[in-house]
Amino acid sequence: MGAKVRFGIDDLIHNGISYDFSPKGMSIVADEVLPAKSNIIIEIDAEIGVVTVKGEVIRESSIPDLPSVMGIKFSMGIKFNKSNERLVRIYKGKNQVWDDGNNLCNGNRQ
Fold it and tell me: Do the beta carbons of residue 11 and residue 24 sit within 8 Å?
């Protein structure tokens, strides 16, 4: 799975886990999701640091075959309003981080 996220319409009141991440959007699994066409603000706890992004919920669904482990029972797809350098760095780096000089540090901040 991906990074821990916090999300909401105006306030970061829900928790979830990211997956299918790209610089243009992502999916989130969580115990609660927002309805399709909702505006959303997301705080991504990535290895490069916390990244906050705004977007729109483009789909939401239940996960019927997944046991309610840790409260995860719903999924939603998000389209980001605007991509930025930090989102691209998360996507390209996967489990690696970059220092401020754009040098790969293999997970160890220098």
Answer: no
